[in-house]
Specification:
It is built from 12 helices and 5 strands. The chain is an alpha+beta fold and 255 residues long. Helix 3 packs across helix 4 (80-91), helix 6 runs antiparallel to helix 8 (150-172) and helix 7 (135-147) packs antiparallel against helix 8 (150-172). The radius of gyration is 21 Å and the shape is elongated. The termini are far apart. The relative contact order is 0.10.
Length: 255
């Protein structure tokens, strides 16, 4: 792979109002491959409006440019969901242009970040609501079995895999190295040999020969186990709903 001039790339996207331009992801960590995107993030003191990440093809490289306001950065340090997604990535990033050291201050803050009791309390409240939110996917999975409805089964699988993975990631305070680390790093946090990790592998279908029905059965069992593990952390009003979803899952297993 040819050498990449990251600084030249940064210069392409330096416009008025941008306070810092940062290289993130695999290219910042140094573990990129020939099919790895180059992730560049621009930090704004005041962003004109909301921006979606845009992908460019530059000298045979896909370059993904994202924009973040300093107000959004604050959420990375106060929201448990955002903290798990961004904090570790910031610690592994490389500033390509940093006016007045604003990003250096953000990185220093990320380097010293601590998942404290206040953050854990916010995380518990967040996952409680998430578990209620994924009841819809439990319902779709159960109805999908009854009607042999592929669409409902696939929708249900999403919540019973990625949804529950996020629940436990936030509950555990797993600071991801990147989006590709969501599965392995969350499973590792739970213990590779734990029942939760075993069911997670089955639900995702990453072990042995499997079928969609078997994966969703494992996903439903994973919902039940996750509810059990979180029982003492759930909001009482949420727990009433979650317990009903668990009952419907367990009642089906007896049919």
């Amino acid at each position: 792979m040819q050498d990449i001039d990251y600084q030249a790339l940064a210069n392409r996207f330096l416009i008025e109002g941008v306070s810092s331009i940062v290289l993130m992801g695999s290219h910042a960590r140094g573990d990129f491959g020939p099919n790895s995107d180059i992730d560049i993030v621009r930090f704004w003191q005041e962003m004109p409006d909301e921006h979606e990440a845009v992908t460019y093809l530059i000298e045979d490289h896909f370059v993904v440019v994202g924009d973040v306001s300093l107000n959004q950065v604050e959420e990375w340090f106060t929201s448990p969901e955002m903290a798990t997604e961004f904090i570790r990535g910031v610690t592994q990033s490389k500033a390509l242009w940093d006016r007045e050291g604003q990003f250096a201050a953000i990185k220093k803050r990320a380097d010293s970040f601590v998942w404290d009791s206040d953050m854990q309390a916010k995380a518990d409240a967040f996952v409680s609501k998430m578990m209620v939110g994924w009841i819809e996917e439990v319902q779709k999975a159960l109805q999908g079995f009854r009607q042999n409805d592929l669409g409902r089964l696939l929708n249900g699988k999403h919540g019973l895999t990625w949804g529950l993975l996020k629940v436990m990631r936030v509950h555990q305070g797993v600071l991801l190295s990147g989006d590709n680390g969501a599965y392995p790093e969350t499973v590792a946090s739970m213990g590779e040999d734990s029942q939760w990790s075993s069911l997670c592998r089955k639900a995702f279908g990453v072990v042995g020969e499997t079928s969609l029905h078997a994966e969703i059965e494992a996903g439903l069992d994973l919902y039940v186990l996750t509810a059990e593990l979180l029982a003492e952390r759930l909001d009482p009003a949420d727990k009433e709903l979650i317990d009903e979803a668990v009952k419907r899952i367990t009642d089906r297993s007896r049919e």
